[in-house]
Amino acid sequence: MTGTRYNVGALAALGLLAGCSGGGGGGDGGTGTISLAIMDAPVYDAANIFVTFTGVSLKPQGGPVIDVVFPAPVQLDLLSLNADNAETLLAGHPVPAGQYSWLELHVSAEHDGQMDSYAVLQNGGVEEIEVEVPSGSIRLVSGLTITANQEASFLIDWNLHKGLNDPVGHPGLFLRPALRIIDMTQFGTLNGTVAMPLVTAAGCANDLNLDIGNSVYVYAGTGVTPDDFDTADPEPVATTAVTQNPTGEYVYETLLSPGAYTVTFTCQAMSDLPDTSEDVAFVQPQAGTIVDGQTTTINFLASGSN
């Protein structure tokens, strides 16, 4: 299998099949299909993060694990993936209908000198640094349902900002499974613009030449006081990069499950380390509601009004 890049809106229409091997499972409830795509939330100290995927496993409730092994490893630059060009890992793959306890992505990512998964830093220095994913797999335990004669489509958002770690005293980098999963049968789009004065304000810790360091943070629920990544609530459920488009506007876009959210902007995302508390300045927190099949637009204006 080679990865195939698609707009996620077309995911449910795909007819590609990945190779499979291994278990059966699931009982006699018929057969459905599953499609998986992946994108990432931004990280700001790397130019590229390549991860090699080797397969997928699913665990039916009450049945043996189903293993799907890709005919060839799929190496992806996660930093190149977003809501417009998520990469399809599995498309229209038949599985027994029923309830599933977990889904697991298998990767080839160890500190073994093979460079099948590695990062290229923004600031130069060591050109390529190996990336290890602990245990060699990423498990999502939220559960999922496969319905007979229907396709289930899911988008996995790997938050590299939260997941990428450089532990002291260890070789290479570690990439933890900081994931969220979006059911592509029920999702909406969040987008908007950010005024130039907010991006160029005094105190910004961004790099406008590289177009990095500006980010929108999204929190579950309304009226949330924004906070950085620090392992204490409230933690953002999603972040998305704010980048300059060809016309010079600063724009953002991400996909979310239906619900109520607090949305805010910061030009200090590069200062936000995943495990410690930093004094990150967030501006103009706003309430937003995501509705299935619709686009919600939240703009951040220079005046502070919306």
Structure description:
This protein is mainly β and 306 residues long. The protein has two domains: 180 residues, no CATH class; 110 residues, Immunoglobulin-like (Sandwich). Helix content is 3%, strand content 46%. The strands form four sheets. Strands 3, 4, 6, 7, 8, 9, 10, 12 and 13 form a nine-stranded mixed sheet that branches. It has a five-stranded mixed sheet with strand order 1-5-2-11-14. A four-stranded mixed sheet has the order 18-19-15-22. β3 and β4 form a beta hairpin. The longest helix has 4 residues. The N and C termini lie far apart (46 Å). The N terminus is likely disordered.
Mean pLDDT: 85
Low-pLDDT parts are 1-27
Strand segment count: 22
Shape, per Cα inertia axes: globular
Tally of structural domains: 2
Distance between the termini: 46 Å
Order of helices and strands: EEEEEEEEEEEHEEEEHEEEEEEE
Structural class: mainly beta
What is the CA-based Rg, rounded? Answer: 20 Å
Helices, by number, come to: 2
Question: Residue share in helices?
Answer: under 10%
Strand content: over 45%
The largest sheet, given as strand count, sense and whether it forms a barrel, is:
9 strands, mixed
Could you list some keywords that capture this structure?
2 helices, 22 strands, five-stranded mixed β-sheet, nine-stranded mixed β-sheet, Immunoglobulin-like, globular, 3% helix, 306 residues, disordered N terminus, mainly beta
